[in-house]
Amino acid sequence: MKVYTRGGDGGKTTAADGSRRSKFDVRVQAYGTVDEAGAFLGLAIAHMDDERLADLGEFLTGVQIKLFDVGADLARGNRERKEPYVCRTELADVTELEQRIDEYKHQAPPVKRFVLRGGTKPAAFLHTACVVVRRAERQTALLQDSEEIHRPAYLYLNRLSDLLFVLARLVNARLEYEDRQYERGGDVFR
Fold this sequence. Notes:
2 strands
């Protein structure tokens, strides 16, 4: 595998559909940010060495794999290709995230105010991954205003950011760290 090609030296990259795009093109930003989110998930997983988190680390490794699928779906673009592309992100993947949210959200103490992001190391990395996924979601929303995207990829990002918030809180709860709530505002969660 050749690590460098010099193809990007002029500020352009080759997207999965074969088109040359600026490195700040909204499609490139979207799938690049998905890749960044996967890296932060890797940091969170690397810090889940406590046996109380083993099930979460295993699940999040699967999410990392799915993020490669989401990135591939976002990278494909609209250009016609000789071989057909089969999208990898399905609505069933979105449903699975919703089920996980429903399962995990009650395993941490309820909050009524915004939570300060942080706590234990794995929770802090999950919070970071959450906001990176939210950025990927915003970039994907911008992309869909001008180009066609695979809708389940966008929905997956939307649900994943919610799940990562829930998981960060769950990790803190399992590791007996009490989340700190933002005290200057009113109640926002009911």
